[in-house]
Amino acid sequence: MSLPQFTHLRPADLREASAMLLELPGESRVLAGGTDMLVKMKLRRQVPRYLINLKKIAGLEGLRDEPGGGLSIGPLTTLEALKTSVVVRKKYPLLHDAVARMGTLEIRNCGTVGGNLCNASPAAETVPALLLLGATLHLVSRDTQRSVALEAFIQGPGRTQLARGELLATIHVPEPVQGSFGAYEKHSLRRMDLAVVGAAVLLGTEGPLCRWAKIALSAVGPTALRAHHAESLLAGREVDEACMQSAARAAAAEVQPQADLHGTVEQKREMAAALTARVIARALERAGLHPGRA
Ligand SMILES: Cc1cc2nc3c(=O)[nH]c(=O)nc-3n(C[C@H](O)[C@H](O)[C@H](O)COP(=O)(O)OP(=O)(O)OC[C@H]3O[C@@H](n4cnc5c(N)ncnc54)[C@H](O)[C@@H]3O)c2cc1C
To answer: Among 8, 62, 109, 217, which residue has the least CB neighbours within 10 Å?
Structure first.
């Protein structure tokens, strides 16, 4: 499949990129790693006249860990750079779990975290992890700038809060809360494929107690969904096997899967339950706690 014709533009900074988005006649689109955009263009789902390539803009790539101040991630940071970052592996293992399970090495070397968020696929795998970690996105345009919680940024499949001319400039992840432990797991046909179901958990622990819990599931709703009832079944408890299984069943009841080639609604709920139980168990293990039998 060939690409449709387009004009390739290379702005020097985000202001110029924004001006291009605002001023060019006809459809223009931002290009980062192109692993989503170029596929859509080949399939003629999007046929922009102009592609505004951000790759030449300095300062949009890389991680900055400020002790006590959290992690700033440039939107052009590749998935592979996140995967191989020692800071991400040690301080944000939930995010490391997610990127380590994404695509192939080739895709992770091209694909960026900003592209994964802005593409707003219901199956995007950095989303559940960054959602639970409380990520905030800094958006800029030629004349404006603002910060938006990731939770509010993604509005539906392929839909974000980006206004005309706006670009994602930075992703900020707050310093992890002391005593919090997370994990992410996905089910996909092949390891490199998009998740059929993805599950992320973040538990706030104190001694043997789970003080609070956050659970997000992806690919089983229009965006990554929080499983609030399941979270409430874990909060304030010493989590044993029975508690873990009831939270997993509750999470499966809260998702909104659609039947497709990858499974029926019931099969996807079963996958959601199994993955939720698995990530809770892994997070407890990371906390040095093991779910005992009831
Ligand atoms: C074979 C294959 C396997 C894949 N496997 C996975 C997987 O396992 N898990 C997964 O989650 N994804 C997967 N993907 C999807 C894709 O690789 C990721 O979503 C990737 O992170 C997209 O990043 P990109 O830089 O390539 O985005 P691009 O394709 O360049 O852009 C994606 C969208 O984001 C917009 N955009 C990009 N950067 C900005 C910015 N700074 N400001 C505003 N808008 C912006 C673009 O305009 C476009 O609409 C896979 C794709 C392929 C082809």
So the answer is: 8
